[in-house]
## 1
Amino acid sequence: MSIYSDCTCKAKKSATRKLKSSGLRGNQLNYKLEDYKTNDSNRNMFEGVGRYLKAWPELINSDSESKGFCLIGNPGIGKTMLSCIIASDMLAKGVQVVFVSSADLLAELRQAQFSKDREGIEEKIDTLGKAQALIIDDIGKEKPTEWVQAMYYRLIDLRYRNNLLTGFNSNYYPKELAQRLGDFGDATMSRILGLTREHFLCSTDFDHRIEG
Ligand SMILES: Nc1ncnc2c1ncn2[C@@H]1O[C@H](COP(=O)(O)OP(=O)(O)OP(=O)(O)O)[C@@H](O)[C@H]1O
Ligand SMILES: [Mg+2]
């Protein structure tokens, strides 16, 4: 009986730790696939995400290079909503997933780089490079300074070399995203496509923030 309680307690602690480090907050945890309204424009993305939800549990521990997903389209079509649904599903199945907006990611890396503790940035990249699953929301939105481009290349190259599940959302289609990722753009984009090509989903729809 006491062994049973210990096990439950450990599992709960581990789940709480994973939830905290996932970066998922508030209503991001409450999105449900059944709340996503479909129409002719977004059905392809909705169905693709449905397929991915079925596929990822097998992909994550496979040899496949393309374990991740990429959702591309205009603002307000539910890319963040759908990615949060994927991240929550991973979390519920015990995966150590990190969901981070591109702006927060860069702010954290910048803080680590320019803090007194110079090793902070290496530790941060190492942690993100090793997370079992990493989802970067809104890649390409920020001003593409040389530092931003280099950071993205380093992190995405590390995910690619470690063959780890990585998901992306963006407002930019590959050609434009590669341009926004600067001198390293083609190399970074090539790795993003490699990591996600089996579940690379694009859609154009009305902005659900404005119309509904
Ligand atoms: N098809 C949909 N059905 C129901 N709600 C939706 C749908 N698409 C988006 N929404 C809602 O619209 C709001 C904006 O969606 P979300 O933030 O996911 O858009 P986005 O594609 O990530 O936009 P951006 O590119 O600006 O980041 C959210 O409240 C989301 O729940
Ligand atoms: Mg978004």
## 2
Amino acid sequence: MTNHSAANRSSDQPKNDQPKNDQPKNDRLKNDPLKNKIEQRQARIGIIGLGYVGLPLALLFSEQKFAVTGFDIDQRKVDTIAQGGSYIYRIGAEEIRAAKAQGFSATSDYARLVEMDAVIICVPTPLNQYHEPDLSFITDTTHAIAPHLQAGQLVVLESTTYPGTTEEVMVPILEKESKNGLKAARGTSCDDASAKNEFFVAFSPEREDPGNTAVARRDIPKVVGGVNPKASELAGALYGSIFQRTVPVSSPAAAEMTKLLENIYRCVNIALVNELKLLCLRMGLDIWEVIDAASTKPFGFHPFYPGPGLGGHCIPIDPFYLSWKAKEFDFRTRFIELAGEINNNMPYHVLASIGGALNQHKKSVNGARVLILGVAYKKDIDDLRESPALTIIELLQKEGAQVNYHDPYFPFIGKGRKYDLQMKRTELEQLAQYDCIVIVTDHSDYDYRKIVGEAQLVVDTRNATKGIDSPKVVRC
Ligand SMILES: NC(=O)c1ccc[n+]([C@@H]2O[C@H](COP(=O)([O-])OP(=O)(O)OC[C@H]3O[C@@H](n4cnc5c(N)ncnc54)[C@H](O)[C@@H]3O)[C@@H](O)[C@H]2O)c1
């Protein structure tokens, strides 16, 4: 007999019968002024940090008829928005202009925070030179907000960070430096009449997957954890107005940890498949064929794909926020360390593969003309942060190769990048003049059949040449 009850459902079966919204329905905040403003689209939203996360979020609120003010210390971004332009490839200028018509503006003047009902922080969280969390963007922003903080305002952190940042780092600064001695609301009841000197604080992680057009941003459930139940409910109401589903958790730390679990899961699984790729190469097996076959299993397997190394502002960085915090609890996060070691080694594997492929042609890396195809950290996006292509280029140059690159999204690789490279994109002409073409990022725009046809030798790190049977192709 088949039993369809939820209690008997295995954890890796689809969960599409879950309710659309996990926020408990209640009327406890029925007369709350901020909740009412949110529902009536009267709440004014301030978004601090108008980068890859903050700008799309501002547009989403704007689409839902909220008046949004963006805050950024980068004057170039503020000016571009003032002129109705965009500086992110996948966001068209027409979207910025539509938002402006809806009241969207950008400023670098923090004094304007006093006008806001809700303030959402989307600033970077990188690692420092010792591979430790660099919270300076969060603390700088918090110091800048504090003197302008108003009673009743809701402050939400979206930047990815270790559990405890919101309550242990941000809240004390806000309380200490706010005018009039404001305090973060900590009452355990939602019915508490909002004290005159309280503000509300929550954490809600950003879960965007850049370049993924299969899932609309508003369809990605939004996890929310407030310092107290009322902060949770207010943040839930705010995000519930632009996202299809909100998922409340018991605390900001639980929400912070949720985001890290998601990214560590990804990082560790990519490392696993990268390691198995190296083994498959040695055994003469095609890892991509194996993954495709394993993916036909309708449960218990989620495919991850090998590549030339990790990139982006999230997966190579976020896990180490947790490793660092874990030390405070005398705990070693061995999976994270091992995954980091394997993933960081992948650009070196690519270098060795290029050397091996050239060797087959009786050539050496030293003096070889090499074209890197695709430098973005993943396909079809304009983001170069932590891209393995930068490491591969640097390694090739150190070995004496003459390196050019092509990427439709980057006319230049400018100074100030990871390795201070200064390179100008070459055009996709005369491919035959290169001793080796290395596919590092498999942008959809490339005609791989044509590239293989014209090239002398192709090293493919992404299986972009799948189905092209040619002795010129080396998959690594
Ligand atoms: N990019 C992604 O795909 C992604 C996905 C999920 C989570 N995240 C997380 O979101 C956060 C932001 O990432 P991002 O990719 O948008 O970064 P980003 O570098 O694209 O944007 C950050 C913006 O913050 C601005 N900024 C820095 N300090 C500021 C300050 N004191 N005041 C005002 N503005 C300031 C910068 O000028 C920049 O415009 C990070 O914690 C990241 O880990 C990013």
